[in-house]
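Replying to the earlier thread about multi-chain prediction with a worked example.

Input:
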Amino acid sequence: MSQYIIPQMVYDDLEVFKKNHADFLAGTLDELTFKTMRVPFGVYEQREANTFMVRIKLAGGILTPVQLLSLASLAEKYAHEAIHITTRGGAQLHYVKIEDIISIIETLHSIGLSGRGGGGNTVRNIMADPLAGTAQDEVFDVSPYALALTSKMLEQKDSFALPRKFKITFSGSEADRGYATIHDVGFIAKIQDGIKGFKLFTAGGMGAKSRLGTKLRDFVPDTEVFLYSQAIKQVFDKYGNRKNKHAARLRFLFEDLGLEEFNKLLEVELNDVRAKGDWKMEIEAIERTVGDTTHEPFSVPKNISKWWNRYVYAQKQAGLYGCKVPVHLGDIHFENARALANALLLFGEDVLRFTGDQNLYIRNLTAHQMASLHDILQKFSVEVSKPTLFGDMVACTGAATCQLGIARPRGAVDAIQKRLDKLLDTKDYDLIQGFKIHLSGCPNSCGKHLIGDLGFFGKVQRHEGYSYPAYNVVAGSRTSGDGSVYAQKAGDVAAFHVPAFVEEVLDTWLNHVKAYESFADWIDDGGLAIITEISKKYVDIPSFKEDKNPYFDYDAVELFSSKGRGTGECSAGMYDLIEADKKALKEALEKEEKDFELIRLLSARMLLVTRGEDARDKAGVFKAFKTHFIDTTLLNAYFGTILEGDADEKAIELAEEVMKLYETMDHTLKFAKEKELVPKEEKSVHFKDLSGVACPMNFVKTKMELSKIKSGEILEILLDDGAPIDNVPKSVAGEGHKVEATTKEGNGWRVRIVKK
Amino acid sequence: MKLTINGDSKEIKDGIVLSELLIIENVEMPEMVSVQLNDEFLTKEEHAVTVLKAGDEINFLYFMGGGA
Amino acid sequence: MKEFSDEELERYSRHIILQDVGIEGQEKISNSKVLVIGAGGLGSPVALYLAAAGVGEIGIVDGDVVDLSNLQRQVIHATADIGVPKVLSAKAKMEAINPNTKVTVYQKFLDASNILEIVKGYDFVIDGTDNFSAKFLINDACILANVPYSHGGILRFGGQTMTIKPHESACYACVFDSPPPANAIPTCSSAGILGAVAGMLGTIQAAEALKYIVGMGEPLYNRLLTFDAKTMNFRNVNFKKNPKCRVCGGEGIKEIKDYEAVVCEAKL
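Result:
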């Protein structure tokens, strides 16, 4: 069976990498240099120190039983016994030791697989409709295009140093199971005047500022798939925003340029690609070796009929069947993979797909062959024996491992499944076969909440000063090329109440399912309002004193907090909080009898979240506000004095100033004034707030900060009154640094030090 | 004559050779001590023929093989 | 520049406060690799203090298992460890003290066939062995591999130590030339040792290692520190590198070979 072609360059690079690897193990090559070498091979460090994962490209999710067998052996030997299916239908080996990397890469090469461009700012794994080549409704099989385009893209050097990641997909029909409209480049199969080709969408994507792709061409002949992909990539490469990675994806560039300007730039690049030659793509159909396909009469045995009805589907080829195998969170135990691969070896080569929903699909089997796999497949996950609803739940890892995460959706999935599992005897979820519940931990769409029937994305809520995890609810997406719509906002719920909320939504939908063709139809026909109504029951939680449970996220041992979260692409989640405070502040300002204390508190708190602060009480809020807004001179020191003593009408001035500041904030959470402040930072005044840090740790931390700066540069520290101010400056001077000034600031002191 | 032995000043009779001093000082197993005379180490062969003179500084450095 | 975590800053705060150590010195300690040969009377305190100090990587060598008679002085081992390989018992304690330290164990005795390879990978070596053939072998290997090390020896109530910077300061053989004949000199096993003396000398060796790593103070180069715990007299004997030294002198040694093992018959 054809596979993508690994270019010679990759093998050549491996020889260099081998040497680097040996040097690194011997300690003669530094970590950073080694990192730049390993990443192109798909080797990434995990959060745990010294553990790595290896990403493996599977174009269109295609792999053979022989390859699955090899992956199983690698998983057993090197990777904590599991093969992981990625959200782009590729494979990943986790918990790999650095010593084993070379053996793994060599084994992968020997079975025709590579990790090149698995992550980073590269052309990512090219996807295809999971049912490509088998679906009843498809125009033609798109899998060969995913393979051929992967081979071509691997040859291009510019595929690996783009402004940001670049995602391409193929769908075989208008049902758009490859999600063409949420990719940088999406193709939907179409035949025009007897010629094979595609509708071409571009600049779609989910995340901060999600965007549905724009249809760029109504028809592109299939020979021009590479031509267009490469030209769009070149536009992106030349004009994409390399400075700000949060606004770097193609969709931001497209929004800036507009369709007309984009097309102009594209024409230039199309000509360039044509001029370079070798742009026509020759497509070979995937030729399939098959096992025994004599179609004997078959009737589904009773004991497997539930499974058969849920997961097995009839292919467009008469007598052949495909099947979806739900895989819990994308992890396949090597023994299951091995058992399945062994069984499939007899049935041919093109019998497997990994898919972007992190499941496994089996295809091209006779009914008898498919039925024979039942027992093996049962072991893959508990979801195999449950209605599709269970296996179709999608969740990103969330705050459990992701710096951007707010909530922990995987824990929520477990909680939902636990609750629904108890109801299986009384409720027939098979009636809503195919219903998709998707959860993301933040507004980034790693959990694909915008394309779920029912979607959730994490947010922070506050109750009586305590933060707790919550979700925005969205509902009713459609994916079908031109007719695609993202799920619409339906309400808010506390994370704690998600399982109960889901149960009630499903109950309601079960009552309506017979009257509608799809969930999205019901949503459009009044269902959205019903869900909004339901959500209102699940948004409030008891006070912290009454019940602390809702203040903990699922699987979390610590009290929920957004503190320490990275400010990444995901910052949109913060806007919820800011807007909530802003609204409350406006209301407070409009009241006749003004509560100055409240105004002062809301003003000080409103923008703290942009600095990663999550202060719980007034003192904490005021202190953090001073640190981030007064000390940094974002606001005049006068506004700091408003926080001292009792609140009075000056609180209104503070409120107005804070709202003005908010107006100047850009989508990277930077205020206009901060950009002006940058040159001052370059004058090398460094700052560390050591208030609240006792002796001698304040001195230790001062030394740490001093060690980071150059001789002659300035460090300013804040110290508490008393022992700290009595001791630290003396000790610092004793080490030969110059203490330039100590000035009283609030209850403490600001000390200015010139490093010796 | 006055000698400095292991840092201590001592009155020792004139004209002796080093081997005799080792006996006088009750050095256990004298053949197995490393002897430093005025900053120089003496070989074992030199012990019997090195005549000491007033003001010499002598250090006896014992082998210590222990550590466990 | 290493960015120490708050945990590390607090853990090492009493080092960092020292002007001679500071952040830079602690960073050197955290990046250093020290090999401790012998996990016995000297190796115990050395390993404990170096782990506590935050030495980045500590290799520990010993082929023995813990014996009841060891526990009177080998403070890294516990009663429950009897029968356990010493290196494993030591590793567990070191990691318990400081999880930031990486401990590599060599459960073997060193000889001419393996010592150079192991010593080469370290910045500093501690001799905590209990016999002359090992002590001279370590000296030879460190001179050949150009790795500085701390010699240590104890006997009854006394101890001696010196720090050797190969080809710059006097080596062990500059002072003692070559091993004594078998059984001429008693070693601990046959002659006894006050347990605390092992601790006194081992901690001196640990301090020497840290001084060398950080580059502070005056290491025991070209002098032998000796003490007698009965009188508590400490003495430095000064000397110079011997140009005619059998090991590090003009001709010097070119290759490594084993010394005849000086096995103490009285050993229990």
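The radius of gyration of chain B is 12 Å.

Feel free to reuse this layout for your own posts.
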